Amino acid sequence: MTSTLVRWSPFQELESFDRRMRRLFGDVDTITPLLPAADVYETPTEYVVEIEVPGFVEKELTVDVSDHTLAVKGVRDAEKETKERSFLLHERLEREFERRFSLPEEADTEHAKASFTHGVLKIATPKKAEAAPRTVPIAKV
Predict the structure, then answer these.
(1) Against a cut of 0.70, is the pTM above it?
(2) Labelling 66: which of 95, 105, 111, 124 has CA 20 to 30 A away?
(3) Into how many domains does the chain fold?
(4) Residue 114, number of CB atoms within 10 A of its CB
(5) Considering the domain boundaries, does residue 85 fall inside one?
(6) Cβ distance 38 to 99 under 8 Å?
(7) Residues 6+ away with beta carbon under 8 Å from 14
(8) 80 and 102 in contact (C-beta within 8 Å)?
(9) 56-85 core/surface letters (b: 16 or more CB in 10 A; e: else)
(10) What CATH code is carried by the domain that includes residue 41?
(11) Residue 35 host element (H or E)
């Protein structure tokens, strides 16, 4: 039997709470908008953020990196409201969202790359090469 440790995140609990509140009260203006689900992980060579953004197209997404903070924004045109429908449940992403992630100091933010496939935005930031220790020769004076 293997056990897996999962890092606790208060944001996951807040998003889960937000979903439950929306189900309970409907689409009330005082409840914050839903945020897209994200996975953040590292490999031996890079840090990766994957965000599910169904319904958005590539040109509606923006990725900015500043001072080891990754900001992902999505803005799309509003759907034309029709009077023939009234929502009983509305959980899909809003027209606009913004998520921010703190990247470790080891992240080489100058070489971050983003790709978009099947509704998932993937941002990969390589790790900086660690400076290998070297021997410094002592000069005779």
Answers:
(1) no
(2) 95
(3) 1
(4) 17
(5) no
(6) yes
(7) none
(8) no
(9) beeeebebebeeeebebebebeeeeeeeee
(10) 2.60.40.790
(11) none
